[in-house]
Amino acid sequence: MRENAAKWALAALFLIDGFGFGLWAVHVPVFKQRLALGNGELSLVLFGLVLGSIVSMPLVGQLIARIGSRTVARVVALSYGLILAAMGMVDSFVMLVVCAVLYGAAKGAFDVTVNTQAIAVERHFGKSIMSPLQGCWSLGGLLGAGASSLSLRHGASLLLDLGGGGLLMVAATLLALPWLIQEPAEERAAAANEGRFRLPDTGTLRLAVIAFFGLFAEGAVGDWAAVFLRSNLGVSLSLAAAGYATYAVAMAGARFSGHWLLRWLSPAQALAASGGLLALGFGATVTLHHWAAALVGLVLTGFGMANIVPVVFTAVARTTKIGAGPAISAVSTVGYFGFLAGPPLIGWVAVHIGLEKALGLVVLSGVAVAFGPLLMARQPDREREQDAVPVA
């Protein structure tokens, strides 16, 4: 019973994490319109979010190494919902920037905490659950965005929409927190001593690079796929939205079944297959110039994208020498930077060479994910034993 309770509680937290991100994503254009922000001002808001996340992720990783993810979750999970609720009262640009920094810090800390807790649950019960948990995050994002869009369409105020959504997250979090598990004291002590003054080991850094390319592609597809369908293929707005929704549903479904993939493939093989499918699918989307082919390509892209992050997190927990908390925070920080850097870089390159060619960077990212683990597997035997991605 304790095992099931821990898994369901963790699934709820991943769902809450994604739900909050969905709420935020829907309200970015709302804040832009309500506060009459220009693109430059909105960029500052988004930069504040990035700054908060990048600062908080390494710090919370070290904190987890000392006091455990369950204890840290009590603070960061509740803060996440409360900050979103407070955003409903924002009425100025300065307030929005401050809230964006705080939201970014809470979001980054929450991501590191729930992923570290997931590693602890996997180790404690000896079962792989990372992919289905990431599926819960994707489902939460769809629910948050959908519920918020529906409430705004029916005239809900910003305070009611964000305040109500944030408080709902807090209530659900309070129900889930008591069922989380605590890492053994000796494991936390060892991680704290090993990770205190050490940079991430080479195996962790290599996995962080793979996470960067995987999340670079995810961020770029999320922001530019529908734009490409509309502007380059000339489909209607509804079909463009349907194309992105198809990709998102395919990714969520693949994440829920990802643990079956790891029963048959090693992490290195799974990453190679995922990266190859991502490159093939999105390559078809941007080069075949047909709506039906683009739709099939986006489905393959979603399948390929789905399990890159879950596999990387599971692999880094198995191979790191600095403790799961600091290692997950290091990989999350690098990967999250890729997620946020992808969309503006694609936009900048598109200005110079066109969107279709710029989106080739997504295809190249898939290739990098596919070949990264294979190159690692060719290290000298002694180094491979120490820090390479596990290979079957």
Automatic annotation (TrEMBL):
One of its GO terms (cellular component) is membrane. Residues 6-383 form the Major facilitator superfamily (MFS) profile domain. It is a multi-pass membrane protein. It comes from the Bacteria. Its main location: membrane. The chain crosses the membrane at residues 9-30, 42-65, 77-103, 158-181, 205-227, 233-252, 264-285, 291-315, 327-346, 358-377. One of its GO terms (molecular function) is transmembrane transporter activity. Keywords: Membrane, Transmembrane, Transmembrane helix. It is found in: Membrane. CDD domains: MFS_MosC_like. InterPro entries: MFS, MFS_dom, MFS_trans_sf, MFS_Transporter. SUPFAM superfamilies: MFS general substrate transporter. It holds the Pfam family MFS_1. This is MFS transporter. It comes from Silvibacterium dinghuense. The lineage of its organism: Bacteria, Pseudomonadati, Acidobacteriota, Terriglobia, Terriglobales.
